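Entry type: protein chain
Record version: 2
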Amino acid sequence: MKGKWHYIVIVAFFAYWNVNSLFWLGTSIFGIVLLTGLYSNRVSSLFLFVCTLSFVFFSYYAPAIATNKPVIAGDVIKGIVVSTVKESHHSFLFTIKEKVSNEHVIVYVPKPTQRRGMFQHGAQCTVKGTYEKPTRARNPGNFDYRQYLKKEGISYVMRVQNDDDIVCTGQSRVASILTVREWIMASLEAKLTVDSFAWVNALIFGEDENVSDDIILTFRQWGLSHLLAISGLHVGLITYTTYLFFTRFCLVSKESTSIILIIFLPFYAILAGADPPVLRATIMTVTFLFGNLMNKKWLTSDIVSFAAIVMILSDKYAPYSLSFQFSFLVTFTLLLSKTLFLKSPFWNVLNISFICYFAVIPLQLNVFYFLQPLSLFANLLIVPYFSFFVIPATLLSVLLALFPLHPISEALLSIHHFMITEVALPVLQQVDFTWVIGQISPVSMIFYYCTFVTFMRNWEREKRRSTFLFGVVIVLILIIEALQPYFDRHGYVTMLDVGQGDTIVIELPYRKSVMLIDTANTTPSEQPYGTGEQVIQPFLWSRGIQKVDHVIITHFDEDHVGSLPFILRQFKVENVYTHPTVPEQWEKVLMNVNHEKVKANMDLVVEDIRFEILHPNDDESYEENDRSVVISALLGGQTFLLTGDIGFTVEEELMERYPSLTVDVLKVAHHGSKYSTSEKWIKQVNPKVALISVGRGNRYGHPSEEVLARLKNAGVEVFRTDENGAIMYKFTEKEGTFYPFYP
């Protein structure tokens, strides 16, 4: 098995794939590989037997993340704390392994609390609280917290109401190390400025919550997020400097130094947060040092494989972690391409950046939906800067700050902060070549990696022509993925769940045009983040949308227009349409965009589809809700009526002005307010389907029970974003079907 242990890791990967929804694909690929090995006679029967046995084992070992686990009985749990204690703005949170069921539950304890000292790793706790399911994604392309926790083996959270409801005693040995970690962090926070501590906290302890959002977003957009996390590079630098210090300055033997490192590195891994890249590098380094002590020369690929297997066996959910996937994918790719790194240092750095960039593209598209082609060159400049200056300087700063030399630490970190905020960020933010592709399909991902492996093999063999051709194929795969919507004969209407607000996205067939009707609030009261950033943009990017042809703002209430400035910054917007009475503050926002004011009897014709403006008229005495732009359009053989926030008065006017107005799909006005959608209005427009955009548990009581009763009595099928999440309508020229995100 020497030199072949990485095949066991690959087998484990297919087994995990086999368990989660793609049974036929994982089994089929493994079967093909197995039969190929048998008939080629290039591998031994023993090796194939070990691979088959491993596949069967990991197929039973791998947990299915889609499984709905039952709630633990009662409102009291007893168990052991198995995680570090984290702190948010409003609470402390940690994970408990329940004593009877062995299920993992996240416990939230509100601030302030007198019992913080009880919450230690390994503590035995009795907790009384309320069970909740974690929040789930309510729109396509949005972050799914429930699914994220399932990938960590957690299906439920428990919220504690009072201090008396939780009692913990004892702690593990790991808790002592974590206590040292907290003491060091507190000491550094007291001595360093906010900006300097933010960098130390991120690069030494793996906590990036103090780094500014501006830096995090820019680094993410440029594919530099890995620089804000602790990686194997930290372990390598610490190992190297410690080894030199003891062997050169302290004259300690190499064997004794290796033993010191074998003991010390696991402690450092815990201090650094024990993320997968750190654990991988720690296990690899300890294994390598142990091999040297035993006079064993193990192949690096086998050491990496051993690290992966150890991590999987110690945590069966580890392969679901993105950092695990990124870390091992990049490491294996570089190891299997080591013959390419025999040139000058410059070409070695260039090759490493190139290989790492292309190795993770499918994973990046599955999570972030976009690529930054220029990030290859940004990494060439910024990665060496972090590797040879920032990380060593940060490590040195921590040592100096723990002694009366923290002004030197502050000076080093201030120089770095200046270089990032005043030099790097302005350049990166001005140069934007983001390529939004959308989520890549599983078939394309397989095809991509097969092509990538062939590309790498030809590159190693210096077959330049074949290497170039397969490189072209890799780019073509990405281009085809990006162009797929332009060959889709279907159009889509999506009412996004944006909380208590409105946003409707209309995509015409063959992606001939993209229209956005309203842009929701800036931050819904029930969600602690920006709607544009966390809801609208991820949805559009997951669909491969980077350009919005038309934005219609029905009126200027915050819950319909709040995220417009964000949309104008992040997307190329061709046209914006509003009612004629535009508030002064919004006139300024719309100064640099093609802005047209619309009113009744005007039409917006988009690729042969007529969007008829029915309201407002020339009367300027309306309140803002009643100024809403009302639109009628025929999509997929069904007439849609989009009504903004109009009330009874405007409904009466529309019935008088358009006595023959009937529709198939009615967007219920004002989130289902009892002051809209009268019985007379429903009877005249006679909709078959009603769509209500409304926030869960909103303080206004929307949708009104009266409105729901009127719709029910009229036999109208109702879809609500608070119950169904996003509501999607997929249509062709003559027909369409509704697909609620949650049936």
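Comment: The mean pLDDT is 87.
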